[in-house]
Design brief:
Blueprint (H helix, E strand, L loop, with lengths): L1 H18 L8 E2 L3 H4 L4 E2 L14 E2 L5 E2 L4 H4 L8 E9 L5 E15 L9 E2 L4 H5 L7 E7 L5 E4 L4 E9 L2 E7 L7 E10 L14 E9 L7 E2 L11 H9 L7 E4 L2 E7 L2 E11 L22 H6 L2 H26 L6 H28 L1 H25 L17 H15 L20 H19 L16 H24 L23 H10 L1
Parallel strand pairs: 1-7
Antiparallel strand pairs: 1-8, 2-13, 3-4, 5-12, 5-15, 6-8, 6-9, 6-13, 10-11, 11-12, 13-17, 14-17, 16-17
Length: 538
């Protein structure tokens, strides 16, 4: 995998150079730098409007200030003039931190004034148009600001300290009072104090690639987790995140940018240094099902063709396993501290309600012969789709797909199907008032789970009334055209499988199970004439 990881690293590096810059340390741009780089720009202060959603400065001591600090607010405008971060220092480890700064400016130079060591970097062609065009003999030379690092005494509170760093760039520093644990919240912000001249380009008055780094040389890891010290929120999502991600450290928060830090290997909730970042990087691991959950009932072929009693026994084991998991989480919740205990109780109540709905779906399969048959046929359709997909991915090594292969549901998929069965099957069920959200990372199997429910619904309606059960059964809506086409292909494969099953047996009516697509004229033909042309080309 080393080649793959190396390629990923180079791809990230290229992306950062493209979005933030610089392409080269002493680069020479042919187009204005504001056009070339789309992030990491501190614009002159005479532009932009504060975003009202960001116009509150919440202190770590829980006091909410009605109006944001001007330097913080200036990071939330259309053309931001500031950027920075807030972090916390353990005063028992140190009372002094070192701040380091980086920034650059681009100056107009005539073509013959280029640095000999500089390499010209091509820019996007749209840039000249947005800036009204530039002379072919004019370029933009990058110049790095020489800003010395300095030490900050954080032992005493500082309401607002402004320090000039040179050329119109200033530092705003706020040191709040320490809490009962000796933790000191600190805010540092870089602010562009320059104003552009009326009618001129803003590029000469902007700062590029700004960066702040805070450290405490020789101290170890004085920067501590802020998560437990943040003000309480009534937002249910934020309360849930505090519970679910209580093991993840939140060392700092960015203003107009993101923040990264160097974690201490011996203490994951502490950091040796923190710094701002406009192109943050974090490795997100793939999510997968728990390998310890291995039930025979997950096999699609068993669900599609197995006898009813053994299948229901396996589904009962799935529900019992979920019940055991909930019980273990209840034991774990008793050891929690603070306000997350109440959040944990709410989560477990939701889990118990989900378990009850799963068991009601299981009871439906046990008592309703039509629902059981629709469930089997839906699994048969999904099995055919899965087998054919695997067969195509392997290059069609055999004459036909192998439906006897290790095709299985993931636990959450089968649980979601059981969860929704009663609401689909029983018109009087209170579940019909719910909209169930299936939330799982990309590639985890969300689409396959809800397609199974579409197949179940289509078969259920036709088994109940072969003549009137046809018609529009499900509407799928997507907001991204590319995603719409991709998902339509997957849905079409399932519907073709359902139609093949309908043709192979009686009792499902004479009208075909079909699928349609509308994505607008740019994505698909809208008239019969356009359709004939498209088909002829195909």
């Amino acid at each position: 995998m080393s080649l793959n990881y190396d390629f990923r690293a180079r791809l990230v590096e290229a992306l950062e150079k493209d979005l933030l810059g610089p392409g080269e340390p002493n680069e020479l741009l042919k187009d204005p730098p504001i056009t070339r780089y789309s992030t990491g720009v501190l614009y002159p202060t005479d532009a932009g409007t504060v975003d009202p959603d960001q116009d509150d400065d919440v202190g770590d001591d829980g006091d909410e200030v009605a109006v944001a600090d001007p330097p913080v607010a200036m990071a939330h405008v259309r053309y931001p003039s500031s950027m920075g971060m807030t972090f916390a220092v353990d005063s028992r480890a140190t009372t002094a931190i070192t701040l380091q700064f980086e920034a650059a400016r681009y100056e107009e130079v005539a073509g013959e004034q280029r640095d000999e060591g500089a390499r010209s970097t091509e820019a996007q062609s749209a840039g000249s148009r947005r800036h009204g065009g530039t002379s072919s003999a004019t370029c933009w030379q990058r110049r790095v600001l020489q800003i010395p690092a300095f030490e900050v005494d954080v032992s005493r509170p500082v309401a607002a300290d402004w320090r000039p760093l040179g050329e119109g760039l200033e530092l705003f520093l706020r040191v709040r009072r320490s809490d009962s644990d000796g933790v000191i919240p600190i805010t540092v912000v870089l602010v562009n104090k320059l104003k552009s001249r009326r009618g001129s380009l803003r590029d000469p008055f902007a700062f590029f690639q700004p960066r702040i780094r805070a450290s405490a040389p020789g101290v170890g890891a004085p920067f501590v987790d802020r998560q437990g010290r943040a003000p309480q929120s009534d937002d249910p999502d934020l309360r849930s995140y505090r519970l679910l991600y209580r093991h993840a450290a939140a060392i700092a928060v960015g203003h107009g940018c993101s923040v990264e830090w160097e974690v201490d290997a011996s203490a994951p909730s502490r950091a040796r240094a923190v710094w701002t970042s406009f192109v943050p990087k974090h490795e997100v691991l793939l999510a997968d099902t728990n390998p310890d959950i291995a039930l025979e009932v997950f096999r699609m072929r068993l669900l599609a063709y197995g006898d009813r009693e053994s299948t229901l026994t396996g589904l009962t084991d799935l529900c019992r396993g979920y019940e055991d998991w909930i019980s273990k989480r209840r034991d774990e919740a008793r050891s929690l501290l603070g306000d997350v205990t109440a959040v944990a109780e709410d989560h477990l109540a939701n889990c118990s309600e989900a378990l009850a709905r799963m068991r009601r779906g299981l009871g439906l399969l046990r008592s309703d012969d039509v629902a059981w048959k629709a469930f089997q046929l839906a699994n048969r359709a999904v099995l055919q789709v899965r087998a054919r997909t695997v067969w195509k991915e392997k290059g069609r090594p055999t004459e036909n797909p192998d439906e006897h292969g290790p095709h299985a549901w993931r636990p959450f998929q089968l649980a979601f199907v059981l969860l929704c069965l009663e609401g689909i099957t029983d018109p009087t069920s209170p579940d019909r008032a719910l909209a169930d959200l299936l939330w799982f990372p990309t590639g985890g199997g969300k689409t396959e789970a809800y397609l199974a429910l579409i197949a179940y619904t289509a078969f259920l309606r036709r088994l109940r009334d072969p003549e009137r059960g046809a018609g529009i059964t499900a509407i799928m809506r997507y907001t991204l055209r590319l995603l719409t086409i991709q998902q339509f292909e997957r849905a079409a494969l399932l519907i073709c499988s359902c139609e093949a099953i309908r043709r192979s047996r009686s009792g499902l009516g004479d009208r075909p199970i079909s699928i349609g697509l509308w994505v607008g004229r740019a994505g698909a033909p809208n008239t019969l004439r356009e359709t004939r042309i498209a088909l002829d080309k195909l």
